[in-house]
Write a structure and sequence with these properties.
The structure is a homodimer of 289-residue chains. The first copy, chain A, has 289 residues and is an alpha/beta fold. Chain A is built from 8 helices and 17 strands. Chains A and B meet through strand 2, strand 3, strand 5, strand 8 and helix 8 of A and strand 2, strand 3, strand 5, strand 8 and helix 8 of B.
């Protein structure tokens, strides 16, 4: 059993109320989603400022470090302290805590910060390091197939679940759903944020905090299936990716290469299965592996 | 009259066709939007890789440099050459061309590259330099008001205009509309891209290429009104910002501070006027300033 990470729980309210004027000239109250800067310091080095709704700041930061591959395991992290007063989050490595030696003295980490790619995804467009380079090492599990029935269950649950979006709009939601056992087709984690890459990063952080593997999960996003979304999903080891939106060419090509089961345009009873068809079945689920 | 920028015209097809399987198990053709990496070199220095649809690559790059405030005027640029073979674009400054001295020898420019903010907007989340710092210098014109009639004209035209979105989805569109003279309420420029910040940057680039001022324009975006979208609009000197989507808290606060006339949730005959109400009138347009 590893030592738990020392975490703040600095979630802040997700919506604020403003007034606006509608087409009839009436003043109406409007709920809008929060958007807060959060500057990330890792072993005292300033890395970047994330703009976030602020619902899951600790998980967001942990998942960001994971998805940027600056950290290989949650065991490397001793503490994540969010302070909204200073709009900052301090992440401390176990190495620094235990030996006094900062993680930046590892030579390979600093070099990862040099290569920037601005991606077309929503939210955090900066990808540090060369994510694409290691993609051919990714092996996604074929142990858990998905049936049409389970897909419809996921779509249905997400529709009922979305909260801030319904209230205030202008956010993206991501859900991690079970694809095994009695909870199959149910939502395990649900995160909304102003950028959908924040939402996926927060899911990645929560998966680490709760020791959840990816192979028996389904990842749902309200956003588009761009390259970065597909890559992050693969990095989390999740073989099934579902969206109500469409996909881009590079998202498609990477999903094909990685053999991810990717479904888009999921609305009502409609969907399109793009890639990884071997995991999908139109027949009712018979196995409960 | 300034020397025109030496430009390639390297627009590439915006959609490709793939096949997918629908909910009835039928194989159907699907149009998806292109997404291509384009690595930007400015006076031979590699700055970043943009992911783009590729419809307006030269304008995108020029507008990106403008919106990141790495360039103060189009007069500083001698050439923009896009080469899809190498997935790169070479931007050459007039200074380098005429004197042989690279723009990076100006000391202030390199320091702007140091400060990164990852924003919540779609697309290019990286903002170099400290955009926010100079916001209080922005003065937006009050010379051109907007009537409900003109707003409806803009909404109607954009609805008819969107092409790639209708075909393939997964793109954001931005339109620059006239707010003066006989073309009032009409679309002057329309750009779609995989990230909405690419689309707004391409508009910024086209405005420079065609010497178009911002004060008598309306900016329309299909995307959400986040901080970065509002800031970029203000930087282009456009006082009216319209979206079919909602807004975030920071987008709202910056719009209020800058006195931008910002309208969201524009769908059908509905809209919400959030800020800058002094420019808006529900009465028919009487002036044609």
């Amino acid at each position: 059993m590893r030592t738990p990470i020392d975490l703040t729980h600095a979630s802040i309210p997700s919506t604020i109320e403003i007034t606006a004027t509608n087409e009839r000239g009436e003043t109406v109250p409007v709920q809008i989603s929060g958007e807060h800067p959060l500057t990330l310091y890792f072993d005292k080095k300033e890395l970047l400022t994330l703009m976030t709704l602020g619902a899951q700041p600790e998980a967001l930061v942990l998942g960001w470090l994971r998805n940027q591959r600056l950290v290989q395991s949650p065991d490397e992290i001793a503490a994540i302290h969010v302070d909204w007063e200073t709009e900052s989050v301090a992440v401390t490595s176990k190495q620094l805590k235990e030996t006094g030696v900062s993680i930046w003295e590892k030579s390979d980490l600093s070099s990862k910060l040099d290569k920037k790619t601005t991606t077309s995804g929503c939210g955090q467009g900066t990808v540090f390091g060369d994510l694409m380079a290691d993609l051919d090492k990714v092996q996604l599990s074929d142990a858990y197939g998905i049936s049409q029935e389970v897909l419809y269950s996921v779509m249905d649950q997400v529709r009922k679940h979305e909260s801030i979006y319904k209230q205030a709009g202008a956010v993206h939601g991501c859900a991690l759903c079970s694809n095994s056992g009695l909870q199959r087709g149910e939502i395990l984690l649900f995160v909304e944020d102003v950028g959908r890459h924040n939402a996926v990063d927060a899911i990645a952080g929560l998966m680490w905090l709760h020791d959840m593997p990816g192979e028996d999960k389904i990842f749902y996003t309200t956003g588009r299936l761009t390259s970065e979304m597909v890559i992050k999903c693969a990095q989390m080891g999740i073989p099934v990716l579902v969206s109500r939106s469409g996909l881009t060419q590079m998202g498609y090509e990477i999903a094909k290469q990685l053999n991810i089961t990717m479904l888009g345009r999921c609305q009502g009873k409609h969907y399109l299965l793009y890639t990884g068809t071997h995991r999908f079945s139109q027949l009712p689920q018979t196995d409960f592996a």
